[in-house]
């Protein structure tokens, strides 16, 4: 029977000299980008992940799924905050399981671990975005995660942020 293990990703500051999961996470991010038909969109490096995922206030955390000791998937998340509830939320930026590892309940286990983390931290919600064409939308529905029909995502990219920052205060 295949062995599935879900564990926190380990990251060390760049140049720390110890092994960590930065390269593994980057490989998984690249595999996700390929799945989402955007392989050239990944600009991050392992050191970028190390810088952003370490220090006194990391920008993200991640968990890694292993199948028989081999990296099979991951979930990367960070906190947001609801002014209406006065509570933090957990935003799931990425969830991915390699195709060769699907069918072993890894995605469900990653989601359950994210829910346990959210619950332990007093989060009032778990948020994520899913591409409209992604067949895993049904997976999320089966888990009780619903599509928010009344809210539209908006984003300012780097150029938009620069342009907006030039506005007079």
Structure write-up:
The chain is of the alpha+beta class and 169 residues long. The protein has a single domain, classed as Aminopeptidase (3-Layer(aba) Sandwich). Helix content is 30%, strand content 23%. A five-stranded mixed beta sheet has the order 1-2-3-4-5, with helices on both faces. Strand 4, helix 3 and strand 5 form a beta-alpha-beta unit. Helix 1 (22-35) crosses helix 2 (46-52). The protein is globular. The mean pLDDT is 95.
Structure in a nutshell:
The chain has 169 residues and is an alpha+beta fold. 30% of the residues lie in helices and 23% in strands. β3 and β4 form a beta hairpin.
Q: What percentage of amino acids are in beta strands?
A: 15-25%
* CATH topology term: Aminopeptidase
Q: How many strand elements?
A: 5
Domains counted in the coordinates: how many? 1
Sum up the overall morphology in one term.
globular
Low-confidence stretches: none
The CATH architecture category equals 3-Layer(aba) Sandwich
Strand order within the widest beta sheet:
1-2-3-4-5
- The CATH class turns out to be Alpha Beta
Number of helices: 5
Q: At the fourth CATH level, what is the homologous superfamily?
A: Gcn5-related N-acetyltransferase (GNAT)
Helix content: 25-40%
